[in-house]
């Protein structure tokens, strides 16, 4: 199935100086999406233009904006409702900057899940470099008042600490065994080199496979 209709959901307009020099956002996107120019429709939601009913045969591109999603402006919240309807029917959506932030806001549960994942990974990655340890108090301060995220970050740190400790323990034994094996191989190699220097017959036997390989090449 080929989708060749594009809906540009314009969520803002550049400052006057930028607009005079480079044009408005639709011009930018029409340049990037040149093959679909004739099928591209723009809706200026930030000026309260109504969005069409979601259609899974159309691809919607949500632009960037000079507003903030956290301001929860009326037009932005209406667009968030529209996004939820679009996702419910599997309409393809692509967000740019403000656009993808608005999508994350609209899909609430996914946004919460992502913040939990980021907090957990942040706790894990913190212990990978000792240089980050002095900033741990700042990390704790950044999640002040959000006990859930703090607990998740601590869980990530504890897990990574245990994983690194286990890896060091396992790897240390493996490195020792590898060192012993390497020492044995080195002794065998130098023994053969010494014998080849003492006996021409041994040298010929050792080098004959290499000579044969060179001649065949």
UniProtKB/TrEMBL annotation:
Listed GO MF terms: transferase activity
InterPro entries: ChyE-like, Class_I_gatase-like, GATASE
Ranges annotated as spanning the membrane: 82-101, 113-140, 152-174, 180-198
Listed SUPFAM superfamilies: Class I glutamine amidotransferase-like
Cellular-component GO terms for this entry: cytosol
Glutamine amidotransferase domain mapped to chain residues: 76-110
Keywords: Glutamine amidotransferase, Membrane, Transferase, Transmembrane, Transmembrane helix
Name of this protein: Glutamine amidotransferase class-I
């Amino acid at each position: 199935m080929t989708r060749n209709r594009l809906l540009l959901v314009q969520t803002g307009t550049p400052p006057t100086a930028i607009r005079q020099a480079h044009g408005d956002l639709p011009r930018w996107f029409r340049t990037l999406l040149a093959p679909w120019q004739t099928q591209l429709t723009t809706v200026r939601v930030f000026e309260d233009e109504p969005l069409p009913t979601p259609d899974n045969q159309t691809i919607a591109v949500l632009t960037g904006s000079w507003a903030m999603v956290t301001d929860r402006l009326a037009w932005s919240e209406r667009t968030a409702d529209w996004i939820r309807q679009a996702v419910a029917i599997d309409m393809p959506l692509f967000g740019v900057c403000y656009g993808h932030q608005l999508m994350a806001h609209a899909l609430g549960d996914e946004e919460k899940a992502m913040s939990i994942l980021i907090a957990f990974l942040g706790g894990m990655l913190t212990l990978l470099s000792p240089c980050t340890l002095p900033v741990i108090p700042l990390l704790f301060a950044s999640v002040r008042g959000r006990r859930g995220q703090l607990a998740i970050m601590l869980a990530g740190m504890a897990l990574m600490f245990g994983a690194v400790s286990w890896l060091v323990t396992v790897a240390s034994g493996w490195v020792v065994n590898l060192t012993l094996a390497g020492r044995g191989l080195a002794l065998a190699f130098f023994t053969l080199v010494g014998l080849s220097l003492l006996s021409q017959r041994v040298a010929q036997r050792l080098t004959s496979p290499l000579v044969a390989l060179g001649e065949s090449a």
